[in-house]
Amino acid sequence: MTTTISDHGSASVATSAVPTYSLQAQPPVYQFDPDASNNLAVYWGQTPTTTADGLLQLCENADVDIVILAFLNQFYPENGQGYPGINFGPACDPASINQQEKSPGLLDCTRFATQIQACQALGKPVLLSLGGYLANTSFVSDNQAEHFAETLWNLFGAGREELGIRPFGPDVVLDGFDIDNENHNTSFYNTFATALRKQFDKDPKMKRYYISAAPQCPIPDESIPIEAMRQAEFVWVQFYNNPSCNLNSTGFGKSVQDWAVQLANGTSSGNATAVGKGPKMYIGASAFAEAGSGYVNGSELAGYLAKVKDLSLPNLGGVMLWDGTMGALNVDEFGASYLDYAKAAVQ
Question: Which residues of 216-245 are buried (b: 16+ CB within 10 A; e: fewer)?
């Protein structure tokens, strides 16, 4: 992922195949299916279009199934100790008094906390992404990885030990965490994923939580170990900003098939990926030209996704877009947004 985008102009797309349905509000009855092959996951929080009131608008879009908040980008800002740092663009206020005293890397994000709850009420899981480009996301030991999982649980999950400094307030419980490490250091990430699962199992309400991962498309990924990915429910492979396997590269098709094989054997159980099932693989794409190399217009995206569907991969989960708001604003001359094209292509 890219932490910041300097140009937020809506990308122009010329198309020949227009989705057959129009953009509409989410129907009143919706049930998220983590095992589906036609889900659309979108990131939110790190483009110039990010606003404090924009999250709910994205969740109300009928195309969208999963929203990932970007980013928690500092694991241990204070020399391997303390609390993490977050950055959701302009959506948060400065740190509260309690946060300033105890955890200066955190922010007061209660302004859009009710939107998170509204998204969840619509049936849309809301995950927190850990990492991004230019992030400090390394572990130095198994103990540190386990401790960080517990910290996340208390700040963003159902843990109750840090109520005074929780960025979204005491009542918001996120639906899981997205591993987007991009620092080329895989150490202790498998331990971290295992530790997250143990934290999830503490929830007395038995809420379903998810882990996702966002590797780059070259294999092997240099920052997220395959063992950690196999503990996830979702793996959205970034087929952009990687010339050898971008959507519009000659290596795309083979890379998709190689990733499907890599992820085929899940290793977790319980509140986790079923043994032998493996995570669902998502085709990750950029939703606007300024996000970097590998961008294709909506019609072209539909064509590439049609070829992926023709492979009949049993672990295909859908599409991931960076970023959701930019995708909603990227509308062509037919009135179809990039989100429309992505969702229609995997139906």
Answer: bbbbebebbbbebbbbbbbbbbbbbbbeeb
Average pLDDT of the segment spanning 114-120: 97
In a domain, 256, yes or no: yes
Separation CA 116–CA 236 (nearest Å): 22
Match 């991962």 to its residue by tokens.
Answer: 213
Q: Which CATH number fits the domain that encloses residue 326?
A: 3.20.20.80
In a domain, 12, yes or no: no
Domain membership flag for residue 117: yes
**14 in a domain, yes or no?**
no
Question: Is 27:122 a contact under the CB 8 Å cutoff?
Answer: no
Strand pairing of 126-131 and 316-322? Answer: unpaired
| N-term to C-term CA, the chain | 25
Nearest to 123 by CA among 234, 28, 54, 30: 30
Pairs from 271-278 (Cβ < 8 Å, separation ≥ 24): 271/197, 271/200, 271/201, 271/206, 271/208, 271/209, 272/197, 272/200, 272/211, 272/231, 272/233, 273/230, 273/231, 273/232, 273/233, 278/230, 278/315
259 close to 217: Cβ distance less than 8 angstroms: yes
- The percentage of the chain sitting over the pLDDT mark of 90, rounded to a whole number, equals 77
Q: What is the mean pLDDT of the chain?
A: 89
Q: How confident is the model at residue 9 (pLDDT cuts 50, 70, 90)?
A: very low
Average pLDDT in the 255-272 region?
Answer: 74
Structure tokens, 175? 């639906």
**Count of domains observed in the chain:** 1
Cβ neighbours, 10 Å, residue 162: 18
Tokens of 339: 């989100």
97/221 Cα distance (integer angstroms) = 40
**Cα distances (angstroms) measured from residue 320 to each of 98, 100, 242:** 36, 35, 16
Active site residues: 182
Look up the domain containing 233 and give its range. Answer: 39-346
What are the Cα distances from residue 230, in Å, to 102, 205, 260, 269?
35, 25, 11, 11
Distance of CA 45 to the CA centre of its chain: 11
